[in-house]
Amino acid sequence: MLVKVGVVGLFVIFGLSDANLLQGNSPRDLQMVHIVMRHGIRTPENTYPNDPHINNTLYPVGWGQLTNAGKLLQYDTGKFLRKRYNDFLGENYWPEQYYCQSTNVDRTKASVELTNAGLWPPSKIQQWGPLDWQPIPVTSLPLEEDNLLHYMVPCEEYERELEKVVKSEEVQKIYRDNEKLIKKLQDLTGKDIKTLADVQDVYSTLQSEKAFNLTLPKWTKDYFPEKMQYLSDFSYVITSYNDKLRRLKGGPLLKKILNDWKAKMDGTIEPKEIRAFLYGGHDYTIANLLGALKIFDPQTPGYGVAVLLELSKNQENEFVVQVFFRNDTSIPPYELTIPGCTKVCPLEKLIELTKNVIPSNFEAECKSDDPNYVPPEAGGP
């Protein structure tokens, strides 16, 4: 069971030696790293009809934007990455060696920029003026095209499969067992709550309002976070409930990472100097990637959590993979074990284990063969 931490637990940076962080229990030669993280602490993005803060402009921060605490969290994340990968990356930022991408959303782009500020303070030869900072380019795609990081990219077959999962006996039992709670939340919030995702949406609003020091309604003391936690957690489990869902959500990002690793192993990677990738996304980005690897422990991914996927060569010159999950800044990241493999998993073995969740053609696989199917409208991040 992975430890879940609250907002307070995200602010403590605990220093460990690079050797312990990077090498674990056996020497290895780090070859490439992919970092996938959720954005930092934000103000509420959504609200509900009975929210006492519904007309609050949240000036001067605004809705769905990073708070000052969120900015600090992401900057400290960059400093953590600098400490962890200092020897591997070197002190000079070089665009051929480092690539970063974010969803086309203010808070994720700002989070990546802040992480870059902590990771890449200008070296002596890269100092340019009065700021101890240097600009690092961040790539973003239109949300409707970003199937790597944006979880709401339209995909008809995914929605059809998700509907089947929701109608399954196991999931319906969860609805029945929590029917009174869901009805009570609907009455209290004034929101039409039909799905676990609707519960999660209210949970997320209350979580962000609390983090922004807004006073929550009195009724929340009886329901938030404890009584709502399980339903919120399970809403993330459902999105990667089976291999078809994993294939169409976390699959595209996992495919990109595996392809990078295969190209590195084959000597065909471009640019040949590339060492690290940083991806900035959302809670579902994290849940779907871990879900595709079948290592997602039911939880509501916290602000600023990160998955570190490291490709190395072992003493036998074999390419191996290790996956770490950082959801508590007071301790080292958790090393995860992919089912069917060991913690240090041979790349070839990982490719074999994940073949059923890697889409061959995402666009083609998303097309429904039901001419009468009407997909739901895509929501925001």
Key structural traits:
eight-stranded mixed sheet, single chain, 38% helix, 381 residues, 12% strand, alpha/beta, globular, disordered N terminus, acid phosphatase activity
Task: Map the helices and strands.
Blueprint (H helix, E strand, L loop, with lengths): L17 H6 L5 E10 L29 H22 L8 E6 L2 H14 L19 E3 L14 H11 L2 H9 L1 H11 L6 H16 L14 H13 L4 H6 L2 H16 L9 E6 L1 H10 L13 E8 L5 E8 L7 E3 L8 E2 H7 L8 H5 L15
Parallel strand pairs: 1-4, 2-3, 2-4
Antiparallel strand pairs: 1-5, 5-6, 6-7, 6-8
Helix pairs in contact: 2-3, 7-8
InterPro entries: Acid_Pase_AS (IPR033379), His_Pase_clade-2 (IPR000560), His_PPase_superfam (IPR029033), Histidine_acid_phosphatase (IPR050645)
Family: Belongs to the histidine acid phosphatase family.
Pfam family, one: His_Phos_2
Give a written overview of the molecule.
Strands 1, 2, 3, 4, 5, 6, 7 and 8 form an eight-stranded mixed sheet that branches. The model is unreliable at 1-25 (pLDDT under 50). The protein is globular. It is an alpha/beta fold. Strand 2, helix 3 (106-119) and strand 3 form a beta-alpha-beta unit. 38% of the residues are buried. It contains 13 helices and eight strands. Helix 2 (68-89) packs across helix 3 (106-119) and helix 7 (196-211) packs across helix 8 (226-238).
